[in-house]
Amino acid sequence: MKRLLSIIVTILVTFTFSLNFFACEKSESGKNGKKQYTINQEEYLFGIDNLTSDMQPAQIDAKTTNAWSAKVIGELGAKSHRIWIYFGFFIKRDSQNNLSLIRSNCEVLHDYIEKLSENGVERFVGMTCNFINPYEFNASNSTTVPSVYENFDMYLKFLDLMEQGYRMLAEEFPEIKFWEAGNEPDISHGQWFHKKDNTKFSPEEGSFIVADLCYRANRAIKSVNPENKLVMPGLTDGAESIAYLEKIYENIESGYLPTGEDYADKNTDNYFDYLAWHPYPTLKSDTESFVEQEKKMYDVVCRHGDEGKPVFYTEIGFSDYRFGGLKGENGENDTQERVAEFAVKCLQAIKDELPFVETAFWFRLTNISQFYTEGSIENSFGMFYSPSDPGERAGKPKPIAVAIYKFFNGENADESVLYNHLKG
Amino acid sequence: MNKNIIKKLLNSLFIIALTFFAAAFPFAVKNTSAATNKISSYTDDFTGSAFSDKWISRGVELNCDYSALSMVDFNIWGPCINLVNYPVKANSTITFDVINIGGGGSWLGLAFGLESPSSRVYYAEGLIVMSSVTKDDCGVALETKKGAELSASTMNEHERTPESVFPVTNVKKTVKIVAEENGNVTVYAGDYGGTLKKAVCFTGVFKEGYVGFSGIGGASFDITSFRLETDGALVYAADFSSDKMGYSSTGMAGCDWFVSYSYGEENAYISPSNSASFGKGQSLLFNNKIVSEKDRENQGEISVKIKLKDLKNGGYFGLGCGLESDFKRIDEANYLGFYKYSDKIRLAHISYGKLKAVTTPISVEEGENAGYIDFSVLFKSGKKIVATVNGESFAFDDFDFDGYYAFGGAGDEDFCAVIDDFSFSDYVYLSSSDADTSINFNGIKTVFDEQLQESYSTEYINKYLYYIGTQVSQSKYNNNYDGNLKFIGTTETSVFIPKKQYGESVIRFDIKISDNTPTDKKWERIGVAVGLPSPYFKPTSAPFFCFQRNCSLNDENEVLSDYTITYANGMTDCTTEGVVSQTKNCEYNLWSDTSTVYNVMLIVENNEVRVYYKTDAEPEENMTILRRKFKNVSAYGYVGFFGYNGASFSLDNVSVTNVNPYKQTEKDFNGVTIAEKTLKTDVNSQNSLVFADVCGDGSAITLSFGGKTLTVAENALTAGEGIFFTEEKSAIGLLNGSYTIRAEVFGDNFTVGVRNGGSESQLYTPLVCGKITGKQNGEISLSLNGGAEFIRADAYSLDTKIELKTENYDENYENSLNPIKIKPEKPINSGSPNAVTIAIVSVACGVAVIAAGIVIIMAVKRKKFRHGGAE
User: Fold this and answer.
1) Mapping DSSP to helix (H, G, I), strand (E, B) and coil, where does residue B291 land?
2) Nearest 5 degrees, angle CA B713-CA B717-CA B722?
3) Option in A8, A26, A141 nearest B249 (CB)
4) pLDDT value at position A326?
5) HSE-up of B791 (CA within 13 Å, CB side)?
6) What average pLDDT does this structure show over B310-328?
7) What's the CA gap between B331 and B321, in Å, rounded?
8) What confidence tier does A336 reach under pLDDT thresholds 50, 70, 90?
9) Closest Cα partner for B656 from B476, B812, B380, B436?
């Protein structure tokens, strides 16, 4: 009997220890129950932000197709890609608030991802750049969001619909493991995230809604695959962004969130796995001010106990036009050369001084040719000229493409691969 | 399976079903005695590459009719769908094909001379306005910019022609606009494929720049082709099969067209338009049955657009009803179709293969280029249907429709027909238990200023209880504050909505015009909407009643006419005998001065709306004059008080009294005093309404209206002095068991109705109504004889003025309503079920280890004890 009981005790003790061991493994938790993150900058620093004419209603030339883009990104060797997901392109909401996938459009994205994968892209960030609103909210466009203060009942329905939408997208696109829950909610004009009367949200309210959306999106994508990662909507990284990021944290810590639940969840891991913002550095001889701003942003992260959480620059780039373009002091070529040189300096600075950055997604793959023919900030961010540009320029790499390609592949790397897509 | 398990499963399923239903109608209680609401349950415009799973097709194919640039319900002055890449120069011709999809009274505008492709209508040099109706003043008109902007108040007007370019819906028309070097702009129009006729020429007005389409009045148009030629050469042509639309949220680069303001994908888009095309032997079955329910009058309604492309004499196309899903012939049960005979189209009812009823010839278009016919079928209780063709209704009896239904042709002839824009609407009874609304807008908020060390007050309205739209604000606080709600320069979103839903209600409010400056062609509106599905919908999207100003000026800005009409939408007039009219001249000209206060009251009950109004100075009895009465009102929803199209006025003394007799309340007897078998309403009211639930058999009920008595027995009505019957019906079988009495005294009129049991859609069987002379007050009393007793009762005053609340700011109350609250924290990791489970098992194992240890120690001790103590 004594022996039998001893055996039982031994088995139970062993079982208990084993369970505790696995419990620690499974929860990936560090101190205070927070997740531990690794930042793999070495492997994934190079990413591309691209919009294609096959999936976007606007803002892109007709010839920047999925197939063309996948080929060019393959030539560049980027391993990560940020994809712009317009909810309305993939999901239809009827008058009963039922959501359904638009199958034919989903197939377009599946095909694009497949083509990108064939060209060496491993990671996809699905960035949802608009919203699904309840039918009865009668929003006149897809960038409207109900105010949490003024339309609370509708706001709750909105959150439920958004969560459902994220779940449907995550189920439909298992290839996408990173989901960014919005784009530049803090931008000064407020056109991409605004109230029903088209006015901008105050930073207090906007950051509250951003945190709520992150919570719902995170819960949705994790319910499909616990390995999925939620990326906070990329902030503009302007002067006001530091305060905006601070407010997002403060809202999470306030005890008011998440809306619609009877508990407060102050664990930022349940809101986002990655942070994101959008540096658009000014051309300078050194990267000091760029690095300084980036460290200030990350200081906010550290102050709120998230040190070690990775950051995606879901947009980083230079517009020729912004720095003179055709009318630059020494002409367009000079501007582009200076941009290329400084882009490399920024990349080097990220490697040397900003270890929290895992991926910098270059905005954007191509210039825009049509309409803004006289030039604007938006039309000349490209690493390549637009395939719709006239003459020999069409689809040609700009100096920035060559410089970044050499940064990642060595100074002596054969840049002729960047012209392969032009060979037909 | 174990019976208990089955029972549990069934219970679970029941709860799930209940939960689902509750989720679908979160605030609604299904109740046979409440307001019936028409609810859209399925719509299909047949977009996509295949039929949805709601349909079973036998040979029917989806056709892409055309691709189009679609404008849907355009109603804002500003947005313009602009051609992006090609500014239009002089000596150009613009030609487009267009279909007027709907929106009677709407217009399509072509703006020209826009500065950029992102410009709004405001910045157009000119706007060619093409009305959807033929009018004296503006079939086709031109308005040009005067000053910096083109707006209703700043525009030059030019030549006009009364002839509409597209007077009928769903027919493709072609418009050609020629801009000459000399600035003349000529508009030509005509049927698609036909000869274009000159409509009007505007001399010397053209300005170069971008062009775009705009619209107002719920304008919905499909533009199916667009062509721009300059100097005789083609500049741009679109059939919209591959063109792209941009929005302010997306930018315009890469786009051919750009929506310059406000509207998004739901109001403006480019896409193909599909329809379902039928030939002989083909059918399309809807995969949901119609099942009649005895407690509702309307069982469902189908609406569809039908185009008869080729129907030969002897041929039919229509709707087979009462079918099994595997039906052999579409007309094997009850079939309603367009039947061609002697080259005339009629509606025919075929029952079990035989022609049972046929109408006289009806006027519909047919042929390859024919427009769509608006066709709807309302399924009613008692095997009745009402079919409506282009607004004209036909009733058919003995039409058993329970079962599946399908579209298709009957008869032996070949045919070709097309359907599009299908919808099925259900009718459900919805009732509300929401509390009454009562507000006089006198609320204030008093705050203590720490710096000044004194209190100050401001006007106050509780934002959690009321939705206030644009151009609406509470009047500013002053010392002798008598507040109201100011509507100034109203637009389509100028509305005040209590955040409660009502089915049957008494709605009261006062209005006073605050700006009556005459403006040409302005039809300002002040009204009240019922049955709004959400506070965020335009009030005019729901059934509404309004006062409308019709004003016109001559060229010298002298008033030609300025009068007020009453107008209703989403409800059927039933006071204008023999004429279906939504408009009627109003007894008052509300805009004649800015000092008269008008009292308005609507009684919304049993899908009807009764409208009463008078000036505040008039005696109370003038409020009992029935001004308008409407039926078929889907009233369940929010109530919105609105102004529209520039109306400026003040709103005051708003109340909405929930008179649903079956609402859930804390009290069984509301508004009545009861002494054994006698029940009395408040004697202070001149007009009253009472509902009383009675149980038990009573030989008779004695009712008293303002002191004048009437006895209702099963087989006799006995009137006392001063009571005169105008209508009476037998009460046999109605005063036994459980029943509800509805009694109303309103002015000199009284009505009594009974609802016995829970059957049929009829709310109350009218027993008696009549006149009272010498009434002392509005008290109603009911005395029961025999063994009957009162179960519950509710009474309401129907007087113009009732006691209203002043809602001052109360911090605690506001906080209790604020849904954003600090909450208890979720334990760390509690979101991970694995971790939780593991933690519980670990603790359990730990306890087990300790317990086992104790058992071992005890066992060892016991063994030692048994073996003789310590070693």
Assistant:
1) coil
2) 135
3) A141
4) 64
5) 12
6) 94
7) 8
8) very high
9) B436
What letters, b where the CB count within 10 A reaches 16 and e where it falls short, cover B649-679? bbbbbbbbbbbbbbbeeeeebebbeeeebeb
> What is the DSSP secondary structure assignment for residue B391, as one 8-state letter?
T
Nearest residue in B to A62, CA atom: B254
Answer whether B623's CB lies under 8 Å from B634's CB: no
DSSP letter at B89 equals P
Count of C-beta atoms within a 10 Å radius of residue B785 = 15
Rounded CA-CA distance A376/A388 in Å is 16
Classify each residue of B428-449 as buried b or exposed e, where b means 16 or more C-beta atoms within 10 Å of its C-beta.
bbbbbbbebbbbbbbbbbeeee
Q: Using CB atoms and an 8 Å cut-off, which of residues 199-238 of chain A contact chain B?
A: none
Q: In one letter, which amino acid is A46? A: F
Nearest to A255 among B246, B825, B835 (CB): B825
Q: Give CA torsion, residues A396, A402, A404, A409, to 10 deg.
A: 120
User: Is-contact B248 A192, C-beta < 8 A?
Assistant: no
Residue-level pLDDT at B161: 82
- Closest by CA position to B135, among listed B156, B106, B102: B106
Helix (H) or strand (E) holding B859: helix B833-866
Nearest Cβ partner for A19 among B829, B838, B853: B838
Q: Is the pTM of this model over 0.90?
A: no
The strand pairing partners of B269, in sequence order, are B70
CB atoms B264 and A141 under 8 Å: yes
Say if A98 is an interface residue toward chain B (CB within 8 Å): no
For chain A, which domains are there? Answer: 2-13+39-423 (3.20.20.80)
Cα–Cα distance for residue pair B166/B730, rounded to 1 Å? 55
Q: Predicted confidence band at B759 (pLDDT cuts at 50, 70, 90)?
A: very low
Give B810-853 pLDDT, tens digit per residue: 999 999 999 999 999 986 554 444 444 444 555 554 555 566 55
- On whether any CB of chain B is under 8 Å from the CB of A31, the answer is no
* Residue A418 in tokens: 């960047």
* B576: number of Cβ within 10 Å: 13
- Alpha-carbon gap: A31 to the closest alpha carbon of chain B (Å): 11
A141 interfaces chain B, CB cutoff of 8 Å: yes
Residues in chain B: 871
Q: How far is B850 from chain A (nearest CA, A)?
A: 9
Helix, strand or coil, per DSSP, at residue B605: strand
Comparing CA positions, the residue from A68, A76, A47, A56 lying closest to residue A115 is: A68
Residues of A in contact with B834 (CB under 8 A): 23, 26-27
